[in-house]
Amino acid sequence: MALRRQLLLILFIIVAIAVTLKIMEFFQSDVVEADATRFVLEDLSTRYPTADMSIMTITPKYNAQEKRYFEVKARVTEDPLSPCPKRSHIFYNYPVQNFVPQPAEIITSNCRVCTAGICTIAFPEEAIIASHTLNGTSEAQRYITANPSAIPVVTENPDSWLVKWVSDKADSYYVVQVHRNGTVPSVDRVVKS
Fold first, then answer.
1. How far apart are CA 81 and CA 50, in angstroms?
2. Residue 137: is its pLDDT beyond 80?
3. Which of 21, 61, 118, 143 is at a distance of 20 to 30 A from 37, taking alpha carbons?
4. Which residues pair with 69 in a beta bridge?
5. Of the candidates 114, 118, 123, 109, which has an alpha carbon nearest to the alpha carbon of residue 161?
6. What confidence tens digit (pLDDT) does each residue in 11-48 have?
7. Where are the alpha helices (DSSP H) in 58-186?
8. Beta carbons within 10 angstroms of residue 120's beta carbon
9. 161 pLDDT above the threshold of 70
10. CB pairs under 8 A, 24+ apart, for 26-32?
C-alpha cells in the first residue's frame, strides 16, 4: 500500500511539473509576442514618425537551433487622409535572426493603382486612389482639386469600397463606389442638407 502511495505521489509530482512548465511556456510566449509588438511599433514610429501603422500578423517560427522567434508583418500608411496615400507592408523577425527578412512590399505609390494586369482593389488606400484616378471618376477628381481640404472616408463592403470625399468648405460631397475588380459602378454627388 505504501508503494502504491509513493507511485501516486510521484505521478502527481510529474503531472504538476508538466502543467507548471506548460503554464510558464504560455506566459513566456505572451511576453515574447508583446515584446515583438513593442519592438516593431517603436521601430516603425522612429522610421515613419507621421505615418499610420499597425501590426497585421505575428507568426511564431523556429530557427535551425529550435529557438522560437516571431515573423511580424506590419502596415505603414503615409498620408492616410490624402488623395494619394502610400501603403507599405514591412516585415520583421523578432528577435532578429541570422537572415534578412523579406523586403518591404509596396502596395501603393505614385498615386497609381491597377496599372497592369489583373486589377484587385484589396486595401482602403487603393480604393482612395482608385476613387479619383480610374476611368469614370473625373467628377470626383475635379471636386478634390477644387476642395484641397477634402478628405476620404472609406467603407468596406463585401464586393466593393465606398469612398466618400468630404470638404467642410463645400456644399456637397462625392460618394464613389469602387468595385474590388477595379471598376467604378457609381460616382454620386450629394448636396449637404
1. 12
2. yes
3. 21
4. 61
5. 123
6. 778 877 766 656 555 544 455 888 889 999 999 999 99
7. 124-133, 138-146
8. 12
9. yes
10. 29/60, 29/68, 32/68, 32/70
